[in-house]
UniProtKB/TrEMBL annotation:
Main location: membrane
Protein name (database record): rhomboid protease
Protein family: Belongs to the peptidase S54 family.
Gene name per UniProt: Rhbdl1
CC annotations in GO: membrane
């Protein structure tokens, strides 16, 4: 309006905006209001942009918001997410994921309030379930649950990777469904679910699937040039890629 923005710049001061919200009781989520105020306090003029308000209400994360996050200019008038009470089991899990994966409070709060259950983190769960099913099938068929690679029938599987089978390109990836024994399967499955699922919830199925498969492919390519006689089974390459990605969060 002319009274709030006489020069029609699209900006108003954060103090003016805050008083307007309280006097007119605008139906704005308090968490979003905190984010908007923090964003305004992060720029040099301390002003609220109309487009930023529209983006925030529509749950669109603007480039200016991302820049404010990147510059570390975050002011949080309210308490952190850890002080939220009355949360259900799933929302508590989402809060855990936010604190496990995201390095700063503003990003955590944004993720917590904007998180949607669709699409669910199905990639890591599907990969882990497939690995378990394949292991059980081969264990029952061979009657051998440990050191299965020592069984001659096991090495005839079309899934196992061996440098001598490089012409069969699918083996560069399918070996991730095979495991030597319960110890290897259990270790990989545990890490995939503990690290992979939270990463997938935050970063999405496309990024995490690419990251995991890239690790698997790197493992088979490395074996191809370092040991021409060794067969390769297990999803450890993908698990190492997930751990390396999570290391960035730990460092930050």
């Amino acid at each position: 309006s002319p009274q709030l923005d006489p020069e029609n710049t699209g900006f108003i001061g954060v103090e003016t905006f805050a008083s307007l919200v309280h006097s007119h009781e605008l139906p704005l989520d308090p968490a979003k209001l905190d984010m908007l105020v923090a964003l305004a306090q992060g720029n040099d003029e301390g002003q609220v942009c109309y487009q930023e308000l529209v983006d925030l209400i529509s749950s669109k994360r603007s480039s200016s918001f991302k820049r404010a996050i990147a510059n570390g200019q975050r002011a949080l008038p309210r308490d952190g997410l850890l002080d939220e009470t009355g949360l259900g089991f799933y929302k508590r899990f989402v809060r855990y994921v936010a604190y496990e994966i995201l390095p700063c409070e503003m990003d955590r709060r944004w993720y917590f309030y904007q998180h949607r259950t669709c699409p669910p983190p199905v990639f890591m769960a599907a990969v882990t379930l497939t690995q378990i099913i394949v292991f059980l099938c081969y264990g029952a068929r061979l009657n051998k649950w440990v050191l299965q690679t020592y069984h001659p029938e096991y090495m005839k599987s079309p899934l196992v990777y061996h440098p001598g089978h490089r012409a069969r390109a699918w083996r560069f990836l399918t070996y991730m469904f095979m495991h030597v024994g319960l110890e290897q399967l259990g270790f990989n499955a545990l890490l995939q679910l503990m690290i992979g699922v939270p990463l997938e919830m935050v970063h999405g199925i496309l990024r995490i699937s690419f990251l995991y498969l890239a690790g698997v492919l790197a493992g088979s390519l490395t074996v191809s040039i370092t040991d021409m006689r060794a067969p390769l089974v297990g999803g450890s390459g993908g698990v190492y890629a997930l751990c390396s990605a999570h290391l960035a969060n730990v460092v930050m």
